[in-house]
C-alpha cells in the first residue's frame, strides 16, 4: 500500500451556477453547472494512513485544526473509507494557496485535492470521473476542480451519473478572471444554508432550474465557439439570477454589500466606455470580473479609484488534479 500521497487541485469559479441540492447527503444538484478552473489558486494536500496507534488529525497551513472545525473533513474521509472498504487513522496535511484576501471560496480545491490524495494513498483504481464523484461528496463545486479549463458538472440522476466532465481542458480563448475582494468582514450565510432555503421556500425555484438548464446549453455553445462576449453575458446573467433568487426566499437574504453594487456599476461603466467585461458573484460580497488580457490594467486602475481598499488578483485557466507523489 502506498499509504501516503500528495495531490494538488485548483479552485474553480462557476460561470453557470449550481444553487440547490435535490439530495443533500449525496450532494446531487437540481441543475447542471459550468465552471472555469483557475491557474492561480490551489490546495495541496497530503493524505497519510497512520499506524494503528496514531490519532487522526488535520493540519491546515501548519496548524492543527480543532476537532469542531475539522469535523466536516473528518466525516468526509470516514464516508470515503466506508465506500471503498478501507480503514485506518489518518493524517491530512493541507496547504491552502487560495489567499483569503482573494475573496474566493476554497472548498472546491480543498475537497478535490483531498479526494485525489485519499484515492492514491489507498491505491484505489479510480477514473477521473470517479474522482469527481468522490470530490462531490465533500463539496458540490469540488467535483469540477478535478478537470482543468472549462468543465461541466452533469447533474445526473443518481450518485453514479452526477459527475464532472471536461468541456475544453486547455482553452486558448483570451479570458482573464479578476478576483476583486471587497473588504468586508460580514458574516455570511453558508452556501449549504442559502441554497437549502431557496429550494424550500422560493416560489421562483422551478424557474431557476429551467433557466439554468437553458444557460448550460447556451454556455456550452459559446465555449465551443470561443465567443467571449456570449460567455461573459451568460455568466453574468446566471449570477444575477442566483442572487435575485436569494431575495425571493422566505425570508429573503442577500450576499451583496454596498460595495458589491458599486463594483457592479463599475463593470457597467467600463463596458459603456468600451472596455468589455462581465461579472460573476458567488456566495459572498466579492466580485469576479471576466475580461480579456488587454483590458486588465484599465479595469484594475478603475477599481482602485472607485474602491481604494480592494485587492485584485488576476487568473487564467488552470489544470485539473495533479499528483505530486
Ligand atoms: O459547493 P459549494 O457548497 O461550495 O457551493 C457552491 C456554490 C456557488 O459557488 C455559489 C456556485 C457554484 O456552482 O460553485
Strand tally: 14
Low-confidence stretches: none
Give the CA-CA distance, first to last residue: 13 Å
Order of helices and strands: EEEEEEHEHHEEEHHHHEEHEE
How many H/I helical runs?
A: 8
Helix content: 25-40%
How much of the sequence is in beta strands?
15-25%
The main sheet comes to:
8 strands, mixed
Overall 3D form = globular
Q: What's the rounded overall pLDDT mean?
A: 95
Description:
This protein is of the alpha+beta class and 325 residues long. It folds into two domains: 4-170, Ribosomal Protein S5, domain 2; 176-315, GHMP kinase, C-terminal domain (Alpha-Beta Plaits), CATH 3.30.70. It has helices at 67-83, 107-121, 128-136, 191-201, 205-224, 228-247, 258-272, 296-306; strands at residues 4-16, 21-23, 28-29, 33-49, 57-60, 63-64, 90-97, 150-153, 164-168, 176-181, 277-280, 287-291, 311-315, 322-323. The strands form three sheets. Strands 1, 4, 5, 6, 7, 8, 9 and 14 form an eight-stranded mixed sheet that branches. Strand 5 and strand 6 form a beta hairpin. The radius of gyration is 19 Å and the shape is globular. The chain starts with a strand and ends with a strand. The structure holds (3R)-3-hydroxy-3-methyl-5-(phosphonooxy)pentanoic acid. (3R)-3-hydroxy-3-methyl-5-(phosphonooxy)pentanoic acid binds at residues 14, 17-18, 33, 105, 107, 139-141, 191-192, 282-283. (3R)-3-hydroxy-3-methyl-5-(phosphonooxy)pentanoic acid is lined by residues 14, 17-18, 33, 105, 107, 139-141, 191-192, 282-283.
Amino acid at each position: 500500500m502506498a499509504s501516503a500521497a500528495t495531490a494538488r487541485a485548483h479552485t474553480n469559479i462557476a460561470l453557470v451556477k449550481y444553487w440547490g441540492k435535490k439530495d443533500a447527503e449525496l450532494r446531487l444538484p437540481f441543475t447542471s453547472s459550468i465552471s472555469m478552473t483557475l491557474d492561480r489558486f490551489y490546495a495541496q494536500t497530503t493524505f497519510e494512513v497512520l499506524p494503528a496507534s496514531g490519532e487522526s488529525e488535520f493540519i491546515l497551513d501548519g496548524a492543527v485544526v480543532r476537532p469542531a472545525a475539522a469535523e466536516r473533513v473528518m466525516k468526509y474521509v470516514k464516508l470515503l473509507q466506508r465506500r471503498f472498504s478501507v480503514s485506518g487513522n489518518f493524517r491530512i496535511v493541507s496547504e491552502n494557496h487560495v489567499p483569503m484576501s482573494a475573496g474566493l471560496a476554497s472548498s472546491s480545491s480543498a475537497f478535490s485535492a483531498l479526494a485525489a490524495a485519499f484515492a492514491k494513498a489507498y491505491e484505489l483504481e479510480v477514473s477521473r470521473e470517479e474522482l469527481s464523484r468522490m470530490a462531490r461528496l465533500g463539496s458540490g463545486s469540488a467535483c469540477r476542480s478535478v478537470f482543468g479549463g472549462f468543465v461541466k458538472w452533469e447533474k445526473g440522476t443518481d450518485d453514479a451519473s452526477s459527475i464532472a466532465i471536461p468541456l475544453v481542458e486547455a482553452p486558448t480563448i483570451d479570458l482573464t478572471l479578476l478576483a476583486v475582494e471587497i473588504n468586508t468582514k460580514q458574516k455570511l450565510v453558508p452556501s449549504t444554508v442559502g441554497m437549502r432555503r431557496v429550494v424550500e421556500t422560493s416560489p421562483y425555484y422551478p424557474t431557476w432550474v429551467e433557466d439554468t438548464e437553458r444557460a448550460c446549453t447556451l454556455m456550452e455553445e459559446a465555449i465551443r465557439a470561443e465567443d467571449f462576449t456570449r460567455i461573459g453575458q451568460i455568466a453574468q446573467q446566471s449570477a444575477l439570477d442566483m442572487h435575485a433568487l436569494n431575495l425571493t426566499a422566505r425570508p429573503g437574504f442577500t450576499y451583496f454589500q454596498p460595495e458589491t453594487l458599486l463594483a457592479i456599476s463599475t463593470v457597467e461603466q467600463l463596458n459603456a466606455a468600451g472596455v468589455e467585461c462581465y461579472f460573476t458573484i458567488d456566495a459572498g460580497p466579492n466580485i469576479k470580473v471576466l475580461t480579456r488580457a488587454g483590458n486588465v490594467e484599465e479595469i484594475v486602475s478603475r477599481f482602485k479609484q472607485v474602491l481604494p481598499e480592494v485587492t485584485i488578483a488576476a487568473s487564467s485557466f488552470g489544470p485539473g488534479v495533479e499528483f505530486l507523489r
